[in-house]
Amino acid sequence: MLSPKGADFMAKSRSHAMISKGLDDIIVEESTISYVDGERGRLLYRGFDIETLAKNSNFEEVAYIVWSGDLPTKSQYEELRKQLVADRSIPGEVLSILKLLPKTTQPMDAMKAAVSALAPFDLELQNNSREANLRKSIRLTAKLPTVVSAFHRIRNGQEPIQPNPKLDHGANFLYMLSGVEPTVLAGKVMDTTLILHVEHEMNASAFACVVTASTLSDIYSAVVSGIGTLKGPLHGGANEAALKMMNEIGSPEKAEAYVLKALKEKRKIPGFGHRVYKAYDPRARIFKQYVKDLSEAKGSTLLYEIATKVEEVMIREVGTAKGIFPNIDFYSGIVYTLFGIPADLFTPIFGVARVVGWTAHVMEYLEDNRLVRPRAHYVGPLEREYIPIDQRQERKLTVKTTRS
After folding, report:
1. Residue 274 catalytic?
2. What's the pLDDT at 11?
3. Domain 34-232+343-366 is classified in which CATH homologous superfamily?
4. Of 274, 281, 368, 390, which one is the catalytic site residue?
């Protein structure tokens, strides 16, 4: 039995607990990696505006900025690019694992399996110094496009394509998917796509990586945690839903009626709204322009016209009043579709880029590490009586089970 003092403490703790479901607005660390200004619709990587980087930089340079905190010199940039190119290939054993997976495997599960399999091949796996973790971050970033493209081709009965050392990160990824060198426009768009997905503060997958790293596990395990978290449709995958919606609408003329009906029925419009942004997501603005450019280049503007009509109606009906505007997922799925990329690769592409941000957060957190160990507010019964098994009465199970 609890003492009177203990019982009194338990009663007070059960009635005064402050619970933040979803950890909304809970600050878990100080960071210099990225800043999301949700009220003004701005995103900064290490102080550099995302729109400036998208216009003037490239993926390799942005990766350097996020990892190191500053712009690289020409020699530093060339050295990083050289390392990324050199580390693109994956071991034959890992390729064999990808070939053994069922063809119905979700690409995110294939990515998760591949990263787990890559870990033992890294001779620095157990070295948790910042220098070693940076080298491992480069290797992971270099290999993930190869993993995703190889599995995609394998499941379609095709042989994986070796990386092309002459191509930049984004262009090489498109090349490994299709076997065709992309146009200059396509290479630029994919490069920018990866830049826009590199980092976004302490989101669910970044936090998952930090939780794992805080136990002093290895950085591969941390990235596996990030991939597993990103797989969930509430984090990654909204662009698939947005694209599906646009295909259901079918034409720009039907967009307004569709949106108004959905709002009346209190259904969410995929690709709109954000936990942090209360203004137009700057990444969505960049994607929108690229959707227009790609659509016009391909002579197929249907999806762009549907999307812009949906946006127009949504902003008119709820945008200004409730701060619900397009987010990165609204237009990104159209970009991938124009590249001929299937919908179930949309989230893996997110992971291909976000590994830079994940590993940056891991390295930053480990500089002043503290084990992440939150508490749960217990609301169950106290001091129940244990009854010997022979004296227990038969009763039906109250836990629902699903038979396979």
Report:
1. yes
2. 56
3. Citrate Synthase, domain 1 (1.10.580.10)
4. 274
DSSP string, 298-314: HT--HHHHHHHHHHHHH
The segments of the chain whose pLDDT lies below 50 read: 1, 401-404
Look-up: residue for tokens 């949309």? 346
Can 34-232+343-366 and 238-338 be said to share one CATH topology? Answer: no
For 276-313, how does the pLDDT look when each residue is reduced to its tens digit (9 = 90+)?
888 899 999 999 999 999 999 989 999 999 999 999 99
CA–CA distance, 394 with 392 (Å, rounded to integer): 7
- In the set 152, 191, 329, 361, the catalytic residue is 329
Q: What whole-number distance in Å separates Cα of residue 402 and Cα of residue 390?
A: 28
The percentage of residues in the chain with a pLDDT greater than 70, rounded to a whole number, is 94
Active site residue 16: no
User: Residue length, the chain?
Assistant: 404
Query: How confident is the model at residue 7, as a pLDDT?
Result: 56
Residue boundaries of the structural domains of the chain: 34-232+343-366, 238-338
- Give me the CATH topology for the region 238-338: Cytochrome p450-Terp; domain 2 (1.10.230)
